[in-house]
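Sample A.
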Amino acid sequence: MLTISDISKSFGPKTLFENVSLQVNRGDRIGLVGPNGAGKSTLFALILGEDEPDSGTINFERNITMGFLPQESAPVSDETVLELAMATTPEMAALQKKLKAWDEAHPDDILHDHDDNIHARFDELGGYQLEPKAKRILKGLSFRDSDFNRPAKELSGGWVMRAHLARLLVQEPDLLILDEPTNHLDLESLQWFQEYLKNYPGGILMISHDREFLNQLVTNIWEIRQSQMFRYRGNFEEFLVQKEAAEIQQLAAFKNQQREIDRLMDFVNRFRAKASKATQAQSKLKQVGRMEKIEAPDNDEKTIKFRFPQPQRSGLRVVRLQDVHFAYGENVIYRGIDFESERGQRIVLVGPNGAGKSTLLKMLAGVLKPQAGTCELGHNVKAGYFSQYRVDVLDTSRTVFEEALDTPQRVTEEFVRTILGAFLFRDDDVFKKISVLSGGEKSRLAIVKLLLDPPNLLLMDEPTTHLDMASIEALIGALEQFEGTVIFISHDVYFIREIANKVVHVNAGCLTHYAGDYQYYLDKTKASSARGALVAGGDKAPAKAKAPVLDAVSRKEQKRLEAEARNARSKDRKAFFEPVKALEKRIAAMEAEQAQLVEEIEKPETYYDKPGRAAEINRRLSELSDEIPKLMGEWEAASGTLEAYDNSHSPA
């Protein structure tokens, strides 16, 4: 379908491609990868005819059709969502407009010959057959029936991109070119899209940061590196294995060649001045010059290493919900749920769309207030919430660098530049005004700001959206060294596997806890796929008939035994928990007293109106400065004992 022959492309002194040749055949599933700035988007622009190569040719099979989904922003006008999904060609879009205009102007009139020709042409192009297909695809991408006739321009940017994706799938071009197609999809629409593409009849060429998506779909990886294109057979995980083996082999060959060059040059340097050896020395020098030099493996993609500021240590109990009710109007999400998180946990919330994952996260963050019940933060807990709406708090009049520097932490400009570089703000990018950044760039900057001044309770909703693989690795590295607590939602299976040490399944107002990592959750639920398990659960609560049938006496006895067991565990735990709670209370009281005394001693009237009061305050402040660290030591020891007890009694 597509043949690329010996193309080269440079921008100024930087060469992106040099004599690259490629071929795309029908049915190919190709993932395009490479570090930021390597030229992935430029290659797409060359294929689409938006730019020209400096040399070489790009040829297409006759009558081939192509469809392209950009990473962000696609145009809309006055069409409805359904009309946009059916606008598979410019002619089809024009015919739809004419038919719509006629129907609106003459709702009761019969068709004239001219108008009849429009209908005939619309029918000839398959317009009437497109509608059911478009509706089916729109539903797969989570559009509702009531959305079909909405003006597309009323939609948010993410939903506009979904509508354009639907248009491409309805069109079904021979070659589908996708740039980060999963950025705007929720879990269930992503799962549907992934399964749909497995049976797609045409070829697919895509850029994606989603490893699981690539693993499920592609059979070839093209990697742009060092101005060349390297091709690998297999999915993304197989590519990583092959690439590592190739790099080891390349490094060995590089070292062997360097040793040979050093040996030859040593001879040249020793004997080039001796008449009897000059000819041999010159010959060896020419031998070095004729060598095809092997380059050392490229390390551009290695994650930048840095250490983020660490938050203040929190109490053992970080956040707690008790008997919480929450509803949106008549739609009840939670009725009497309990939830508790402890220091150091990395909890991922999974479950079907609409189950209440984001609602739970927002209640923990204080963005939503429970309509009944309580939400309490623990001792010394500072919560930070990251959602797509967080970008709205950025000061758009500042540059990226100015905004990143605006942090309570003491950080150097070099340190900030390093972190910004890890999240793809490099060179002059840091001097861009925030007002001109894309949604993805604002999202990355919001993550940088959050990590520069991290709270000790980090609540994150889809943090990897709009991040490329290198940035995801940087975020994982930051969270691995993070000493606080993380509760998050994500559709990125790789990210979840790297971060989560506990899973909470949310479904039909119920929370099911799994005291292990994501693989533990998959094993316990006997999930058929890692991606599908993220949305497993369906719309309804588990059927009561699945529970063992007990008579009234058995139920009563069972409840009595369960209550006794709970009471016994609670009594045992209380012996460990009460000292921790008492110490936290004493420390909080002393810290409050300390703050009040500091405020008092700073007032002039303390010295003039109350003789001796300043000396009294100083003595008490001195006592508190000794007592608080001692109590903190006792509290840490007691917290450790409680934590050990809980770990030894945690459910399997």
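Sample B.
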Amino acid sequence: MTALLDIKDYRLDIGTFDGPVHVLKGINLSVNRGDTLGIVGESGSGKTVLVRSVLGIGPRNSKVVEGSISFDGQDITNLPEKDWTKIRGIRISMIFQDPMTYLNPLFTIGRQISDVIAAHEKAAGAGVSSKAARRARTEELLDQVGLPNPSMLFSQYPHQLSGGMRQRILIAMALAGKPDILIADEPTTALDVTVQAQVLDLINSLVEKLNLTVIMISHDIGAIATVAKRCAVMYKGEIVEQGLTQDILNRPQHEYTQRLLAAVPDIDVEPERVAAQAADAKPAKRGNLLEAIDLKKVYRSQSGTDFTAVNSISLAVKTGEIFGVVGESGSGKSTLARMLMRLIEPTSGDIIFDGQNISGLSGEPLRQMRRHMQFVFQNPHSALNGRHTIGDAIGEPLRIQTNMSRRDIEARAEALLDIVQLPKMFKYRYPHELSGGQKQRVCIARAIALNPRLLILDEPTSALDISVQAQVLDFLQELRSELNLTYVFISHNLAVIRQICDHTIVMKRGEIVEQGDTEQIFLSPREEYTKALIESGRKTSQAANLQA
């Protein structure tokens, strides 16, 4: 059988001021029609650069040194741009990692998908169909990806949809050209466990219904195990191991693959920290660093309809504890976190930090208070200014809040890069030159620059591969011990919540439905909603650990 996609001895360099960087080092990979291939590896391993090369959208400063990429018998290694229009998006489509980066907030969902359909029709040399025909096709695609009420969605904007719905919109766009190969780049990264399971089920069903060939990139081994029959493991620009997914998970041959699998958190394993804390009576005597009293946030739409994002929540975070917040997309987790930081104003309620009511603070007092409270955002792409170097980004809070000299700020930025395990030379790079996981580590470095007392972390490990996730979690726990830091830790990854958090609240539709000691919640959840969340997390965990 002739491979649909055949990559042979492919070597690619990216030019930098310091000379060429060898990003891909002799890649050999074949994908047959109907295959489902997973590509797994840590941030910076070359996964995304490889699949972008397949689409002819690699970095502008890249150069093919050796080798070739063939698609359906045609060499596309150095294909002219005019010829790509008949392949890209039509025969090979891609679902990108961050929906909000690739959806235009100014246009409706229907307009954006219709425009994609028209562009494909034009590229294929056919006449562009009527507006009514494109609308019918758009609604058919929305229905195909399992979205309710396609006719209503047609007129809605991206900000009106949840993360899971936006991801399905990207899948619908990718299917508009009826592709032979669908490339999914981290399609479940920022999704909670239940929505993640739905998206993975959707991809599996599309493979069967449309006879799609799928290449899926993910740092989530559980997601790869759920979708892909075959798997390739990448490390430092090379494929170090490939074969049947179950064989690789059962009998990993390469040392890196073994380390990767060992780093996968298991939702059913009791973390060691629980036993260590049980023998220590001090945490119970700690005072509260942060409190929320009857916190509420109500949004009013243009039609005058009220939407309650957070409904009368009260909580207390003890000094030195890791306070977990878990729940589905749209449960109000991020809204609550932003209110605690005073990034958005609560409709009512009070926020107490270190005994002081900060609800009414403004101006200089609020700025000084924020020196002690820092935020790590979920999306590192939008959290970093693309025009600033990494060194400038990390040094920004030091320039604003301190009188440190330029030289001292630069030295501190280098030290922070070292802490989050990035090369010091990264201070000269720009965000677009880093992978998603590397950018998230930069955001963590910036957040700890001022030695704050409280860190609010909104999905801080969602963009990180498994091995780096484990390193960051270990680092966060070490930092807590050294500096007596306190964390509010938001995550949809229940295995991570169990591993790191002392106390956890479970949110649903803006309210706390369950709260208490983390281990107690996982061992004996009271609410059906909590049980369903844990069960969804268990399925992904079991897929990665071959217990299913």
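B remarks: Residues 193-210 form the longest helix (18 residues). The radius of gyration is 24 Å.
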